[in-house]
Write a structure and sequence with these properties.
The protein contains 5 helices and 2 strands. By secondary structure, it is an all-alpha fold. The chain has a single domain, classed as Ferritin, CATH 1.20.1260. It has a two-stranded antiparallel sheet. A hairpin with a 2-residue loop joins strand 1 and strand 2. Helix 1 runs antiparallel to helix 4, helix 2 runs antiparallel to helix 5 and helix 4 runs antiparallel to helix 5. The C terminus is likely disordered.
């Protein structure tokens, strides 16, 4: 089977649309304000990803070439390092089975990371590779944010892979 970059982009666009709809639905159903805002930010990023992918598809279909895409750091990517350094906490969660929504979101981000990594490896065009590698980084930031929310809700003692507290004497 030969690699078809347009079909890969169409699959990616479809996936981003699904993510956008899913995150908006989770945001609507989540009663906790911080959880609601997180899902809305995730949906916003998915919309941006979808738009970029649609531009790439149009360029490939019309001009048969990849365009250079400048993907700025998303709000989530900016937020993740700041939160890690401050070790602040996300407010606890209540509402319509937010843990199930978070686990679904985590799975979606994991699949997106794997898909974009695979596309970067399959692509021979440098603009395509760069775009897919950048999308991997953005999806990883989403993954980390969602995992942090799960860790906080489950009170694992870790938040962004950092120990929140220790019962051991130091």
């Amino acid at each position: 089977m030969t690699y078809d970059p347009v079909k890969a982009l169409e699959l990616a666009i479809s996936s981003e649309k699904t993510g956008l709809k899913t995150y908006l639905d989770f945001g609507y159903k989540t009663k906790d304000e911080s959880g609601k805002n997180m899902f809305i930010r995730l949906a916003s990023d998915e919309f941006e990803h979808m738009t970029i992918l649609e531009k790439q598809r149009a360029s490939l279909q019309e001009k048969e070439c990849w365009i250079t895409v400048k993907l700025e750091k998303s709000d989530i990517e900016k937020l993740v390092p700041e939160i890690k350094s401050k070790q602040s906490k996300i407010k606890g969660s209540e509402g319509l089975d937010q843990m199930s929504a978070l686990r679904t979101a985590l799975d979606m981000e994991d699949r997106a990371i794997k898909f974009y990594r695979e596309q970067a490896n399959l692509s021979t065009d440098s603009n395509a590779k760069e775009m897919y590698e950048r999308l991997v980084k953005m999806e990883k930031a989403h993954y980390e944010l969602i995992q942090a929310e799960i860790d906080y809700i489950e009170k694992t003692g870790f938040w962004f892979n950092l120990r929140e507290f220790s019962l051991e004497l130091e």
